[in-house]
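User: Structure with 2-acetamido-2-deoxy-beta-D-glucopyranose, tokens only please.
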Amino acid sequence: MVFHQALVLGIVLFAATGKAQVDFSYEGEDGPDHWAELYPMCGGSRQSPVNIQEDRTKKTSSPALWLYYPGSIPWEANLTNNGHTALLKLNPALPITLHGGPLSAPYVFQQLHFHWGSNDSVGSEHAINSHFSTMEMHMVFYKDEYGSPSNAAKYSDGFAVLSILLDHNENGNPVLPPVVWALQRIQNYGDVTNLDTGLALESLLPNDRHLYYTYPGSLTTPPCDEAVTWIIFRQHVPISSEQVAAFRTLKTEDGSLLTSNRRPLQPLGNRTVSLVSFSSSHRRGSATRRRGQHGRRRQ
Ligand SMILES: *[C@@H]1O[C@H](CO)[C@@H](O)[C@H](O)[C@H]1NC(C)=O
Ligand SMILES: *[C@@H]1O[C@H](CO)[C@@H](O)[C@H](O)[C@H]1NC(C)=O
Ligand SMILES: *[C@@H]1O[C@H](CO)[C@@H](O)[C@H](O)[C@H]1NC(C)=O
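Assistant:
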């Protein structure tokens, strides 16, 4: 019995350190074509990203989608090179939550991260009418009632991800410089740095948050949990070539350059993508609320 318990504990520790698992990459023998060998869910039928054909979307309307952010902004933020992306965490006094739209309950902000490609013509994971953007930013939220991201991953409605598509232009993105500057301090796998200035999450969203695509999908990295309600804004935001180039200087765990970190398109199968807009009665409010406005009914 003692032996049996020790054995079980040993296996749990082995799994928890992750040493038993081969990590994933974006090319070669650990690349996307092989993810399902180690992470079976990556071969499922509800995977992301997908190509969104706008003329095949279902046009619907929905209650307002809004962020609730307590206290003063902006918040302290840190940026990590996890070998697969630049991952940003915020340190608000209280959780930032996402409400409304296709969501039936509050979702808590966990992290945001970026996907890019080897040149400015490719980079986003999702495609709209078969067209890729230069980058894609994912803001990941988990369902509050599930308590933690790891528990949320077990449920089909565990996560909501806000996706923002970025297209290259000359002027670049006015909000991203603190993130871009911080990239040079996280060149190597495992590096973490604080941003020089705080960050307000909603400043990264497009101005028009009233129109978005939504569909049921998965995380776009192993283990590819089929637990995500995707919310992809129809309006894009800008980024300059210099800004994207800074992301391509990050290195992976084995020291090679992370020039591209996008998963290829997955079959949509029998899933429906909705194009959601608000009826005029919803349009008067903004998509964000601060403390004090919480609970106030909009017109
Ligand atoms: C980064 O910020 C998150 C959220 O505040 C915090 O939990 C984490 O400890 C920070 N990491 C480092 C290395 O400072
Ligand atoms: C950009 O990269 C993609 C994928 O590697 C490639 O197919 C395409 O030809 C490249 N475009 C340019 C303009 O270099
Ligand atoms: C869609 O297809 C999957 C398997 O490919 C199946 O499990 C699911 O029931 C189907 N859903 C509908 C609504 O047909």
